[in-house]
Amino acid sequence: DLVRDEKIFEDKQNELRAALGEARRLHRDMSSAYEALAEAKAENARLRERIIALEKQRKHGSTGETGVARTRPMRDTSSQTLSIDELRAEARERDDLARSLAVKSAAIEAALASPSAIPESFQASL
Q: Do 61 and 73 form a contact (C-beta atoms < 8 A)?
């Protein structure tokens, strides 16, 4: 009887170790997801600032050293438009990535907060 109890205890202890290992892995994944999300948001902010600057430059043209607006922009406006469109596409991709990471982070948090994140075999022993 004592041997059987020790075996049950050992099995439960192994299940607990496995659940703890899984929780640690999920926590690392969540931390990585938050870091990637923060990086994506920072990159989005930089891209938006660049888009605004390019749009202002395109709209108003470049200014000379005297501050007087030139009649022609310094660069070809078609290449500027392409550059702005490329920046917008990249910003959209980053927004999509940020949303995806936010969803994954929320799922990881929910899994950690939920009793269902604990293996059923271990839940039965609680």
A: yes
Kindly state the DSSP code that residue 63 receives in the 8-state scheme: B
Residue 47 · residue 54 · CB < 8 Å: no
Q: What's the sign of the alpha-carbon dihedral 98, 101, 103, 106?
A: negative
Quick one: DSSP state of residue 69? B
Q: Two tokens at 59? A: 């709209």
Please report which helix (H) or strand (E) contains residue 73, including its range. Answer: none
DSSP symbol at 126 = -
Number of domains in the chain: 1
Q: What φ, ψ does residue 20 adopt, rounded to 5°?
A: -65, -40
Over the stretch 38-52, which tens digit does the pLDDT of each residue have? 888 888 888 888 888
Domain around 33: 2-125
pLDDT in tens, 95-114: 888 888 777 777 766 666 76
DSSP class of 114: S
Query: In sequence order, which residues have a C-beta less than 8 Å from that of residue 111 and are 6 or more positions away?
Result: 26, 117
Q: Is the pTM of this model over 0.70?
A: no
Report which listed range, 5-9, 19-23, 37-41, 46-50, is most confident. 5-9
